[in-house]
């Protein structure tokens, strides 16, 4: 009996040692969820820098704006990098999650694109306008349309207050359609000639659109850059963890600034 008990204790010790080794290894792996473009590409550019510090960066690509936050909240991910803070705040409020911004990394100007129109002055009455449907991005799209005098919003409308299509004072006679953000480029492509769409920067890049093709973009001198800066999000309380610090330090470098400037030619702007 004593021999059996001794064997069980020994096995427990061995298992514990292996488990400890596994945990130690996991402590050096940073698993980050990201949109494929530009977020995953930016992360890939810092893999070697993190490796030099003893960390393995694992990038998990998502094609929507919901799953990477769910995966972060349930502990599947150590961080994610795909969203701005207004969207994160809205997600937390709607889902009861407690995710936080660890750092702002870049800004993607929203643009208005068309499948046929070359100047917004030529937009015809009744034309279709496709915009993203989620709270923060819908607000952002409507503010851009108002900036270009395509629609009118209530006085004092802002990103902080938020607006929806129900708040539009004058829609200019246009057919404004709200769809999931990731589907906006495809919806524009399949819309009638003369349609326009307000597209998130990452989805515009993914669809092969250039910022130089946009008929209008957000005013870079306004508060859009700060309000809608894309962030690295983590679980609340882990903003200063060793993993988070290592990731942020790797991203906030002149090397990454140069990478962003050279690769995206104004479609993505570093904000650190």
UniProtKB/TrEMBL annotation:
Record keyword Lipoprotein present: yes
UniProt family annotation: Belongs to the nlpA lipoprotein family.
Gene3D superfamilies: Periplasmic binding protein-like II
GO cellular component, one term: membrane
Organism placement in taxonomy: Bacteria, Bacillati, Bacillota, Clostridia, Eubacteriales
Subcellular location: Membrane
Its membrane topology: Lipid-anchor
Protein name: Lipoprotein
UniProt KW Thylakoid keyword: no
Cited Pfam families: Lipoprotein_9
Lipid addition sites, S-diacylglycerol cysteine: 21
Keywords: Lipoprotein, Membrane, Palmitate, Signal
Predominant location category: membrane
Organism: Qingrenia yutianensis
Signal peptide extent: none
């Amino acid at each position: 009996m004593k021999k059996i008990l001794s064997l069980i204790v020994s096995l427990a010790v061995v298992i514990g040692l292996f488990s400890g080794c596994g945990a130690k290894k996991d402590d050096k792996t940073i698993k980050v969820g990201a949109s494929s473009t530009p977020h995953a590409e930016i992360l890939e550019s810092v893999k070697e820098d993190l490796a030099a510090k003893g960390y393995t960066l694992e990038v998990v690509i998502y094609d929507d704006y919901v799953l990477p936050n769910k995966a972060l909240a349930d502990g599947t991910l150590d961080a994610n990098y795909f969203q701005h803070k207004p969207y994160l705040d809205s997600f937390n409020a709607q889902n009861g999650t407690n995710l936080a911004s660890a750092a702002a990394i870049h800004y993607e100007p929203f643009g208005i694109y068309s499948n046929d129109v070359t100047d917004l002055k030529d937009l015809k009455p009744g034309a279709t306008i496709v915009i993203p449907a989620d709270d923060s991005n819908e607000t952002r799209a409507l503010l851009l349309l108002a900036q270009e005098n395509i629609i009118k919003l209530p006085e004092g409308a802002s990103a902080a207050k938020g607006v929806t299509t129900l708040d539009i004072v004058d829609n200019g006679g246009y057919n404004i359609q709200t769809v999931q953000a990731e589907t906006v480029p495809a919806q524009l492509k399949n819309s009638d000639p003369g349609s326009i769409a307000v597209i998130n920067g990452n989805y515009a890049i993914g669809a092969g659109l250039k910022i130089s093709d946009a008929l209008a973009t957000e005013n870079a001198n306004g508060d859009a850059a700060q309000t809608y800066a894309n962030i690295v999000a983590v679980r609340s309380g882990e903003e200063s963890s060793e993993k988070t610090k290592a990731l942020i330090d790797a991203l906030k470098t002149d090397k990454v600034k140069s990478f962003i400037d050279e690769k995206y030619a104004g479609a993505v702007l570093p904000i650190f």
